[in-house]
Amino acid sequence: GIDVVRNKIKMFAQKKVTLPPGRHKIIILDEADSMTSGAQQALRRTMEIYSNSTRFGLACNMSSKIIEPIQSRCALVRFSRLSDQEILGRLMVVVQAEK
C-alpha cells in the first residue's frame, strides 16, 4: 500500500549509489494494478522526483487500473498469453536442466 511506496520504494529511489554514466537504478513493481489510488499518487510523486536516477517498471493485468498520470510516464508493452503447450515446453527445459 501507500506505506510501502512512502517507505521502501522511496528510500531505495533516494539512496545515493555510484553507477556508470547512463545507468540507473531499477524498481520493478508486480501487480501494480492492485495498488490503491493513494499509493499510486505517492508512486507518481516518487517517479517524478527520482526520474533522473531511477527507472520504474510496472507489471499489471489491467492497465486501465493504473492512474493516467503514471500511464503517461510509461511506455506500454503488451504480452499475449502463453499457451499451455508453450508453458509445458519451458517447464520441461527447466526440469531437464535441474536433473
Automatic annotation (TrEMBL):
GO cellular component: DNA replication factor C complex; nucleus
InterPro entries reported for this sequence: DNA_Rep/Repair_Clamp_Loader, P-loop_NTPase
Cited Gene3D superfamilies: P-loop containing nucleotide triphosphate hydrolases (3.40.50.300)
Superkingdom, natural source: Eukaryota
Example GO BP: DNA repair
UniProt xrefs under Pfam families: DNA_pol3_delta2 (PF13177)
GO molecular function: DNA clamp loader activity
Name of the protein in its database record: Replication factor C subunit 2
Organism encoding this protein: Papaver nudicaule (Iceland poppy)
